[in-house]
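Support request, priority: normal
Reporter: lab tech (M.K.)
Component: structure prediction queue

Hi team, I submitted a job for MFS transporter from Arthrobacter globiformis yesterday, and the status page still shows it as pending. I've pasted the exact input below so you can check whether something in the sequence is tripping the parser. The sequence length should be 465 residues. Please let me know if I need to resubmit or if it's stuck on your end.
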Amino acid sequence: MATNSLPANKAVGRAEVTRKVRRTILPIAFLLYAFNYMDRSSISYAQLTMGKELGIDVATYGAIAAIFFIAYVVLEVPSNMILAKVGARLWLARIAITWGLVTVATGFVYNVTQLYIARILLGIAEAGLFPGLILFLTYWFLNNDRGRAIGAMALAMPVALIAGSLSGGFILDHANWFGLSSWRWIFILQGLPPVLLGIWILLTLADRPSKAKWLKADEKQWLEGAIADEYAAMPGEKQDHASELRALRNPKILYLGLINALAGVATYGMTFFLPQVVSQLNPSYSPTNIGVFGAIPYACGAVVMLLLVRYADISGRRKFIVLACFATAIIGLIMTAVFRGSPVLGMLGLILLACGVIGNIPTYWALISEVLTKRQAVVGIAVINALASAGGFFGPFLIGKLATPGDTIVGMTVPMVALVLAFVLLLFVKVPARTPAQTQVQEKPHEPAQSAIEESVGRSAAEQL
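Reply from support: The job had stalled in the queue. We restarted it manually and it finished. Here are the results:
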C-alpha cells in the first residue's frame, strides 16, 4: 500500500520536489551520457586522417572499433551491481574520470597495437554507464516522473552525435598544435570534459534523496517514502541474487535482447562508418564539410525520435512504430548503396537510415515494459543493453571485413541484413495489452514540450524498478 504518497504529496508539494530533482540530477545524467557517446564514437572522425598516419586499412579499423565492446559487454552487468553496492556518486565519478583519461591517452598512441589496447581500456572504463544511470535515476524519481527523466537523458545520444560530428570535422581541419596531428586532438579535447565532470560528481553528487543538501528534511522523507511505497506495491518476489541472475535465462529478455543486438549492428555501424560513407559520396569534401554533412542525418534522426515517441505515447502502437523505423532504415541503406554516385540522393539515404535507427530506440525500449521485477532490473536492464552492445562488436567488425579500401558503402550490407532479421523477429513479439493504470496515465494531459516523449523513452527501463 502506498501509505506515504498522498498525504506527503499534499503537504510537501510533489511538483516542487520533482522540479528540484530534475534541475539538479538530470543535467548530470545528460552530460555523462552525452560525453560518453561522443568519446566512444570520436574514433570515426579521427580515422579520416589517422588511418593514413598509422597505416590502418578499413578492415583493421572495423576491428579496432569493434574490440571496444568485448570488455564493455562482459563488464556491464558487474559494473551495475557494483554501483548498487558502493553508490552512484563514487562509481559514476570513477567511470567518467577513467574513460576521459583513456580517451586523452588515445591521442598519444603511435601504432596499431597501442590503439587496440586503448580501445579495450576504454571499454573497461565505460562499462555499465548507461544501465547505471538508469538505475541511479530510479533512486530519485517516482514511476511517472522516472520515465520522463530517463527520456531526457536518452536525448543526449543524438545531441552527442551531432556535436561530435561538427567538432570532429572542425578539429581535423584546424587543430595542429604542438607538433601533434589533428586527429590526436580529437581524442585529447573530447576526453578532458568527462574528467572534469567526474571530479564535479565526486565532490557534489548525492547518492539518494536522504543525502541531498538541497532538499528539505520533509521533502527527503516524502520522496524516499513514496518510492519505497511504489516498490512495496509491486508483486512480491524472493529477494536474493538468484532472482537477479534468472534474468540471464529469461526467454523474453533474451529474445528482445537479440532484436536489440541486431538493431545495434545498424546503430554502431552508422556511428563508426558514417564519416567514411559521407566522404565516399563526395570525395571533394574537407573534414569540416564531412562533419557538417555528417551531422545532418543525426539532427533529422533526433527530430524524428521526438515526434515518433510522442505518437507512440499517445497511440500505444509501439511495435508498429519500431517496425516502420526498421523498414525506413533498410530503405535508407538501399538508397545509399544504389545512389552512391549522387551525393544528394546518397545523403537522403543516410538521413532515412538515421531516422530509422535513432527513431526506434526509445520506442523499442518501451516494448520491454512489464518484463523486469525490481530485483531483476539491476541485472536485466544491463543484460538487454549488453546484448545491444554485442551488436556494436559484430557490426563494425563485419562492415570492416566486407568493405574495401575504396568502397565503405558495400560494407553497409551488414547492417541492412541485421535490420531485416530484426524486422522479422519483431513480427513475432506479442505485446501485452495496456493495463488500466497505463491507459489512465496516457489519457492525462501532458506537460509542455517533452513530458510524453520522456515518459515513453524511460517507461520500459523504469516501470518495473
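Residues 1-9, 436-465 have pLDDT under 50 and may be disordered. The chain has one domain: 24-233+248-462. Let us know if anything else looks off. Ticket resolved.
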